[in-house]
Specification:
The protein is mainly alpha-helical and 107 residues long. The chain is built from six helices and no strands.
């Protein structure tokens, strides 16, 4: 039950907005200007989407890593100090209760 709560809290719908649209268009036009003589492509949209897709993949990889470590811990496996710190630092619940100013001053 706990695991389900964490997973559902971490899953967010991908939001496409004006900032991401501007980033996409800028990257697409820059790539087009740099590579139009080298690449014969009719789909510059793919080139424009590349950094957005890469960022999304990295975020998903991080979520999967956390879920894997949390499952190992909940299954009774003894984790290393580094893995325990990783779980603590990536905890949504823990971070929502954190006094951010105090924490930043301490670090």
């Amino acid at each position: 039950e706990y695991m389900g709560t964490v997973e559902s809290h971490q899953q967010k719908a991908y939001q496409w907005g004006g900032q991401k649209e501007s980033h996409f268009k800028l990257h697409r036009e820059q790539a087009k200007a740099r590579m139009s003589s080298l690449v014969k492509s009719s789909s510059w949209n793919e080139v424009g989407f590349a950094p957005l897709i890469q960022a999304s993949n990295m975020e998903e990889k991080g979520k999967l890593e956390r879920q894997t470590k949390l499952k190992r811990f909940l299954d009774g496996e003894i984790l290393s100090e580094e893995d325990m710190k990783y779980l603590a630092n990536t905890s949504v619940l823990l971070n929502s209760c954190l006094d951010k100013r105090f924490y930043q001053a301490a670090v």
